[in-house]
Amino acid sequence: MKSWATPFVISLLIASCATDTQSSSPSPTTARVTTTTKAPVATQAPTTTRASTTTTPSCSIDDEARDLVREWNRVSAELLASYMDMSVTAAQYITDSDRLMPKLNRIVQDFRYLRECLPADELVIFEPFLGTYNDKLSGYSALGNAVRIDSVEMEDTAIAMLMAANAESMGMACEIARITGERLPGLDGC
Asked: What PROSITE patterns has UniProt attached to this entry (predicted)?
């Protein structure tokens, strides 16, 4: 276990740093509002109690998705650090994995919920990005199982899954940066 550590850690940490930053776009701080006063008008309640079938998007990749990426990076970095630490036994790693995997699973669930509120133009690029986090979750789960049963072959397979998902998510992060026009630190190679 852990003989291939250096290239794997460097690649995952670079990916984590790439998406763990604030937006470089300046945020507006003031807005001008003009108000007018109108006389009250009597209104009648609608005759139906049926809920409206249209919804307006209420989240964005730039806000909620970015926060989830940061949280994923924090939790997965803790799991990765446990795996890479030569002083951590397999039993300790399994304990850490059992503690952290539910958090990673919840983050992926929260990513899935974003599909319900993202605007259509963001949803088009978000779906493949979400797929990479599903793959990363599967990779970490497979890694935990491989350590649990002490299978070097399964560990290698899990690491390959994680590396492939990481490379794909970096590609998606580059695409999102290109589409949104944002310059994100760590994505200079895009």
From this structure: PROKAR_LIPOPROTEIN
Residue-range definition of the domain harbouring residue 138: 58-180
> CA distances (Å), 181 to each of 13, 117, 122, 146, in order?
24, 22, 13, 41
* Distance separating alpha carbons of residues 174 and 166, to the nearest angstrom: 12
The structure's pTM equals 0.68
- Asked whether the beta carbons of 184 and 21 are under 8 A apart, the reply is yes
Torsion of CA 136, 85, 145, 149, to 10 degrees: 160
When divided into structural domains, the chain yields a total of 1
- Token pair recorded at residue 41: 């008008």
Q: What is the mean pLDDT of each run of 10 residues along the chain (190 residues)?
A: 43 44 41 45 46 59 85 96 97 98 97 91 86 96 98 98 92 78 70
The H or E element containing residue 94 is helix 90-113
CA distance 156 to 91: 19
Whether 23 is covered by a domain: the verdict is no
Q: What pLDDT score was predicted for residue 185?
A: 63
Residue with tokens 């990673």: 104
